[in-house]
Amino acid sequence: MSTGFQDLGLVHFLGDPTIRSALWIGTMAAMLNGVIGVFAILRGQAFAGHALGDISSAGGAAAVFTGISALWGFLGMAWLAALILSGLGLKRAGERDLVTGVVLGGGLGISALFLYLDATGSSHSGATVSIMFGSLFGIPGSMVLPVILSTLSGLLLVLLCYHPLLLIAADPDLARARGVPAGLLETLYLLLLGLAAAISALTVGAILATALLLGPAGAALHLAGRPAQAFLYAAGIALFCTVTGIYLSYESFYWFGGTAWPVSFFVVVLVLLSYLLAAAWSRTGTVPGRPALHGAKR
Amino acid sequence: MFASYMLHTWIMASILAMATGILGYFVILWRSVFAAHALPLAAFPGAAAAPLLGISPLWGLFFFSGLGVLFLRLFSLLGRKDIAMGLLLTTFLALGGLLLSMGQEYSAAVFSLLFGEILGISGRSFLPMVLIALLVLLLVLANFRSLLLQSVSPALAAAAGISRSRLDWLVLALLALVTAGALPIVGTLLTFTLLVSPAASAQRLCSHPFWSLVLSVFLAETMTWLSIAMAFWTNWPPGFFVGTLGAVLFLLSHLTARFRSGLRPSADTAGRPGLSSDPA
């Protein structure tokens, strides 16, 4: 057994403190995004979820410029965008994509300016790559604890509000008729979406953040028969993709003669493959409850 | 600002703005904003791969945006369209990031591809680009009636023998061509704003289909020219100006429409182009 471990380089892999913080942050990003992603897809808000990730890059770039921690930059901007989107009326489905697109354009524009200022400023010439495509191995260890705490409180909130959140996702009118505080839950959901986007941005980069949000949840909805299963599968698939991605990126340093391929590349490819596998699996017709869940909304 | 080395940019940007203004009109009517955002990102690895393979970025861009269209159509068969688009854009972006990391001047290359460069069009890709942009214009104009009818009333379009799937392919292909052309100047991430913002603003301000289309082209041209001029003066990335001008433009036209509908409470100007009465 121990020789098997050594063959894979696992002892060395897990012994590295950089890897350990990467694994912690990746795990948190995977679990939160898997769970929130299922809500996002059930509500037909894939584009909004994607937009929050992209827009958070402006916060990350501003954080580099002002010297604050990247997590707060990503989170602040994602939350600001979430509040703007909910204020502008995400409710009317027809207008939603349009408004989301315009806000996304504005956010990316600001991101362009800050990244330009970062690059011309001084020693931050690599900011564009690390913010847009992630630099999981470059995250300081001090950021691990805030990420864990905010993720766990996010997951706790989901657990506490599980039924009402699911109800407003599945049937908002019924939820309102039953006296569920829809407005409050709507805001809570958007803030959670922003948190998921921010932590995903930290892990795989702002413009790739969507991969963890939509891919695993989409795959899970192909496989699951009941909502609760979908959340578990999504978190599991996201976790598998992230951890394996980190491992492969670490190992790729040895495969390609001293130039490691980015973590985000491996994670994205694994997410794509798992979505394909899940879709193929559900095509074989072994999952009885699939159409009901997957066909919901749009 | 109008020196000879800027001439290609001005000509190219003007033709592209016209194409995006017209095509954007249908992007808004068909509610395909996410597709308009995802397709330019699919072209991104093309620009990244070109220097590695020693080919002109133009062919890389067209190859990958074509690949993006195929990917989108195939994945839409597997499940929902919005997931297909999310997977499309992350996969292609990640691939582009990987390819760029293998080249020289990694960070600077990533930045100018993502957010544009006013001198992004090289001399040898100028002529093919202009021809392709003109082709897009011709194709849109040739299919104008079918596209409009399809967006107004799918049932009528079906009755008239217009194939929905053929038009879907056409719109995606046109989007791919336009974005591949605009990408080097405006940047991967913000090309879609040129498609969305002028057209959406025009539809808020003006309910007649034809004048709304003209206004959309006019706004797209104004936005593009202003962005290039300001990028030239400040040396800031063009993407910044395109993105923020787009948001400001939409906000202003939204407020104008609100104000007008406040004066005439019965009028429905909120984004509903008055197409339902158009005989097409």
What's the layout of helices and strands?
The complex is a heterodimer of chains A (298) and B (280).
Chain A: H1 2-8, H2 10-15, H3 17-42, H4 46-66, H5 70-88, H6 93-121, H7 127-133, H8 144-160, H9 162-170, H10 172-177, H11 182-204, H12 209-223, H13 227-255, H14 263-283, H15 290-294
Helix pairs in contact in A: 3-8, 3-11, 3-12, 3-13, 4-5, 4-6, 4-7, 4-11, 4-12, 5-6, 5-11, 8-11, 11-12, 12-13, 12-14, 13-14
Chain B: H1 4-29, H2 33-53, H3 57-78, H4 81-102, H5 106-115, H6 123-142, H7 144-152, H8 154-159, H9 164-186, H10 191-205, H11 209-234, H12 238-263
Helix pairs in contact in B: 1-6, 1-9, 1-10, 1-11, 2-3, 2-4, 2-9, 2-10, 3-4, 3-9, 4-5, 5-9, 6-9, 10-11, 10-12, 11-12
Tell me what you see in this structure:
The complex is a heterodimer of chains A (298) and B (280). In chain A, 81% of the residues lie in helices and 0% in strands. Chain A is globular and about 60 Å long. Residues 287-298 of chain A have low confidence and may be disordered. Chain A has one domain (2-294): ABC transporter involved in vitamin B12 uptake, BtuC (Orthogonal Bundle), CATH 1.10.3470.10. The N and C termini of chain A lie far apart (50 Å). With 298 residues, chain A is mostly helical. Chain B is mainly α and 280 residues long. Chain B is globular, with a radius of gyration of 19 Å. Chain B has a single domain, classed as ABC transporter involved in vitamin B12 uptake, BtuC. At the A-B interface, helix 4, helix 6, helix 7, helix 12 and helix 14 of A face helix 2, helix 4, helix 5, helix 10 and helix 12 of B.
